[in-house]
Amino acid sequence: MKVICDQSALAEALGIIGGVIASRTPNPVLTCIKLLAEDGRLTLAATDGDCGLRLVMEQVQVDDPGETLIPADKLIQIVRECPDPTVTLENDKQAMFIRSGESMFKIYGFDPAEAPPVADFDDEKIDCEINAGDLVTLISRSLFAAADEHSRYAINGVLVEREENKIRMIATDGRRLAVATGNTSSGTGESRCIIPSKALSIMRRILRNDAAVVRIAMDEHQIHVHIDDPSGQATLTSNLVEGRFPPFEDVIPKDQDKRVTFNRQTLWTAVRQAALLTNEESRSVRLHFHDNKLTLTSHAPEMGEAEVHLGVEDYSGEDLEIGFNPNYISDALKVIDQEQVTLELKAPNKPGVLRTGKEFTYVLMPVNLT
Amino acid sequence: MPIRPLSTLLINQIAAGEVVERPANVAKELIENAIDAGATRIEVLVDGGGRERLRVIDDGCGIPVDELALAISPHATSKIDALEDLDAIATMGFRGEALASIGAVSRMILTSRTHDSNEGGRITVEGDHVEGPAPAGCPPGTTVDVHQLFARTPARRKFLKSDGAETRRVRELMLRLALSNPSIAFALVSGDRTLLDLSATTDPRRRVLDVLGGELDDQLIEVDCTDEEASIGIWGLVGRPAVARPTTRHLHLFLNGRPIVDRSLSHAIREAYRGLIDPGRTPTAVVFLELDPGRVDVNVHPTKTEVRLRDDRLVYSRLRHAIIDALSEHDLTAAVHVADPQDRSTPPAQREFGARRVAEPPLPLRPSGSKGFDARSAREAMDVPEAPAPSLLAVTGSIPVMQVHGSYIVAEDDDGVVIIDQHALHERIMFSTLLERVLEGPLDSQRLLAPAMVDADSEQLDGLERIGPLLAKLGIEAEAMGPAAVGIHAIPVLLLERKVDIVEFMAELLAKAGGGSLPPDEEAALQEVLDMMSCRAAVKAGEQLNESEMAELMRQRDLVERSSRCPHGRPTTLRLSLEDLEKQFGRR
Known about the structure:
The complex is a heterodimer.
Chain A: E1 2-6, H1 7-18, E2 32-38, E3 41-47, E4 51-57, E5 60-64, E6 66-71, H2 72-81, E7 86-91, E8 95-100, E9 103-108, E10 126-131, H3 132-143, E11 157-163, E12 166-172, E13 176-183, E14 186-187, E15 190-196, H4 197-206, E16 213-218, E17 222-229, E18 232-239, E19 258-263, H5 264-275, E20 285-290, E21 293-300, E22 304-311, E23 320-324, H6 326-334, E24 340-345, E25 352-356, E26 360-364, E27 367-368
Antiparallel strand pairs in A: 1-5, 1-7, 2-3, 2-6, 3-4, 4-18, 7-8, 8-9, 10-14, 10-16, 11-12, 11-15, 12-13, 13-26, 16-17, 17-18, 19-24, 20-21, 20-23, 21-22, 24-25, 25-26
Helix pairs in contact in A: 1-2, 3-4, 5-6
Chain B: H1 8-19, H2 23-36, E1 41-47, E2 53-58, H3 68-71, H4 98-104, E3 107-113, E4 120-126, E5 129-136, E6 141-147, H5 154-158, H6 163-180, E7 185-190, E8 193-198, H7 204-212, E9 220-227, E10 232-239, E11 251-255, E12 258-260, H8 263-272, E13 285-291, E14 296-297, E15 308-309, H9 312-328, E16 334-335, H10 375-382, E17 399-404, E18 408-413, E19 416-421, H11 422-440, E20 445-455, H12 458-466, H13 468-474, E21 477-480, E22 485-492, H14 493-497, H15 502-514, H16 522-537, H17 547-559, E23 573-577, H18 578-584
Parallel strand pairs in B: 1-7, 11-13, 16-23
Antiparallel strand pairs in B: 1-2, 2-6, 3-4, 3-6, 4-5, 7-8, 9-10, 10-13, 11-12, 14-15, 17-18, 18-19, 19-23, 20-22, 21-22
Helix pairs in contact in B: 1-4, 2-6, 6-7, 8-9, 11-16, 12-15
C-alpha cells in the first residue's frame, strides 16, 4: 500500500476516528485503525465493539492499493506532528512507514485480517433522511442532559422518536429533562430507539457540512448513519441502548402558573456570575422574583457571596424564591440560539420549565432552599 | 414449713451474697475500710487465691477495743450518722454491712489498735460464734484476717475460679483503688510472691504510670477541666489513639475517688475518640470526676460500682468535651514504625518517634485524707500550671511533593516526611466540613424529576420512619412507596457532585436503619451517616490527583480537626521523622 494524503485532512479524519477507539481494552486490535487504499480513495475504519466508524477520504493519491491495521494513538500523534502539507503512508508486511518532509516513522502494525468488522450502511433498513444542520441542533439540545454512567442504563443515552417527519430527541439524568424537536426531510411511519451518548458525540463531529443530507437506517439492535459530502463519506454504526426509557411525558408539568421572558444572553450572564460563588457542597443559586425584578444570590460557605439583579418586565405571579443548580440553567442556555427564552414556574419545590418556541423544552428540578 | 424470722446468721449470710461473691470482694470491702481509716500503707496477703486466707493490714486510725464488738454487727458504722449524711457520702463505705457479712461466711479475726492506746484488741467471728474481744499486742492500725472463706457456704465456693484467677481479680481491684489513692502505698503478696508493690506518691500521674505501665509515659495526654458553675471537676490522663486497646481493661473511671462502672460515662469517653480509634477498640483513659456528693447516689448496689447521677446529661457532655478539647491540642499524627538499626530489642510500640512530649505532671488531684467534696480545695488542687500550648496546625507549611501509586501523597513537614492516604484524608475533610455544615442547617438538596426507587423490607421501612429527622438534616427526602420500596425525592447536592450512586447509598443506609445498627443517640447516628456519605464521596485510592487537587487537600488538612485520622479511626497520615531517617541511614 502506498498513499499520499493531505496532512490537515488526514489529521482531521484521524482526530474524529480517534474518538471511537476504546481507551481501556485488553484487546489490542480495538485500539487500532484500519486503513484501506483502493480506487483512488483512503478508507479509515475503527470500532470499540459497540460503536464503529468508517471515513472515506477522496483527496488522496493512491499509488499502490492495499490495507493495514495500525495502533491509533501513535498514528494520530505522528500525523499531527507532521510538518509538511503532505503525508505519505506506505507499508510492507510488518510495518507502516509514515513520511512527511524530512521525517520518517516506522510503526509495527497488525494483520489487517484481524481487524474487527465495521458494518456498512444498509440501504434496505433506511428509516429517514435529515438535514445535517438540523440533526446537529437536535443532538446539541438533548445530549448535554443525558446521564453519565448512571446505574439506570437506559438514560445513559438519548431517546430518539420519529413520527412521519417529526423527530424528537429526549435526554435526562434524573434531575433535568431536555426535549428537542425538529423535522426530517423524509421518513414514514414511526420509529423509536435509544442511542448511546458516545455515538451521538461522534455523530456530531462527522456532521461538518450543515447542508449535507444524513441518511439514517436502523434495526432492532443497531443504528447506521451515513453522510456523503464533497470532502468524503462517513458511516457510523452503533449498538442501541437496550432498556426502557422513563416515561418522560409525565414529568413535563402542564400547570405552571408563573411565566417570565428573558433575553438569553442577559440571563446567561447573570447565572454565570452567581455561579462563581457556589461550591461542591452548595451548588445552588437562589432566584427571587419580586416587583418586576429578579435577584440571583449565591453563597459558598467560607468563600463569599454573590448578588445579581435583573429587571423582568413581564413576570406574572406573586413573589417566588426558588433554587437551581446554575450549571443546569447554563447548560441549556448554551445550546439555544434564539434571543428569547421563557421560564415557567409554579412553586419552590416544583420543577421549572425553560422553553424556546416549540423546538426546545427543558424541565429542571429545583434545589431545596433552607 | 411455718413462717418464722430468720436467724441473724442467716440474714448475714444472705447479705453476704450481695456484697461478697469472691475473695476480691472481701479485699475490696476491707481495703476501702482501710482507706477510710486514713491508712498510708495497705498490705494484702492471700493464700490459695484468698479462699484459704486473706489478710488486709493497714496503718490507719484503728478501732478502740470497746467498739470491736459493735464493728462486727450488721449496719454498724462510724461513717454515717443520720439520713442526711447519705446525701453527702464522702467515704468509701457507709452501709456497715461488710464486716458482719464477711464474718458470716468465714472465720474472721479482727485485730486493731488505735494510735493513742498502748494495747490493741482482737475479736474472732465464725458464723454466729463470736470470741472476744480480748486484749492483744499489735502495731497501730487494723488487721483483718479472713480464713476459710465460704467454707460454710459450699455453693458459693463452687463458683470460684482457679486460685490464680481469683488472685488476679484481687490484684486488678487493688490497681483500681491504687489509681485513685496515690498517696497510699499498696502491696499484694500471694504465698511468697510479691505481686504488687506501689510506693506512695504525691503525683497522681506517677501512680497512673506505675499502674498502667511506664512505657505510656509520652502517650498520655492530660485532661483538666473545672466547671465551677456546675461544680464538676474532671482530671485525668487519656491515651493517644495509638495506645487504644481491644479490651476495656485500660479504661478507668472514678467518681469522687470511687472506682465506678458507668455505661453512659464510658460512652462519653469513647465518643470523644470517635473517628480517632477503631470502633472496636477502647481508649486508654484514667479519668477522675469530682461532683458534689449530694448529686450522686452511690447507694444503688452494695458493691457501689454503679452510681446514679443527677444531671447525667450535663456530666456526659462536660466529660466528652473535656477530652475532645485535650486531644485537639495535640498532634496525633501516627509515627511510622521503623526498626531501630542499633537496638533490635525494644518492641516498636515503645518507640513513638513522632510523639511530642505532653505537659508537665500535675499536682495531686485529691489530697489523701480529704473527706467530703470541697469544691474550692478540689479546684485549687486541680489548678495545675498551664501546659505550653502545642501547635494546633500540626504540619502547617506542608508542601505536596508527589502522589505515589495513585493512592498516597508524600510530602515534607518540619519534622520529617509525611505519607498521606488520600482517601482517608479526603474522607476526614469531607466529614468535618459536612458536620460543621449540618449544624447550620440542612444540606442543599437537589430534587429529582421522578423518585429514585430502592427496595426495602418492612423493618427497613420502620427504620426509615425513625431516621426521618436525620434524613431531613442531610437533605434526603424519601418516603415509603408501597409495601416494599422507598422512593427518593431529593438528594444532597454533594453526593451528586461527587457522582455517588444514590440508590446504592440509600440501600446501605436503609439496611443500617432497619438492622438497628445505627446508634440510637441522634448525634452519634448523624455522625455515622455523615461518615458513610464522606466515605462514598471521597476520592478513591487509585484516583489520579493533579497538583492543584493535592495542594487543596493539603490546605484543607491543616484546617480540619482530627485530620490525623479518618472518621473510622484509621490514620490518614504517617510521619517518618528526620531523626529516624538519620538513624536508618547511619548518620547518628
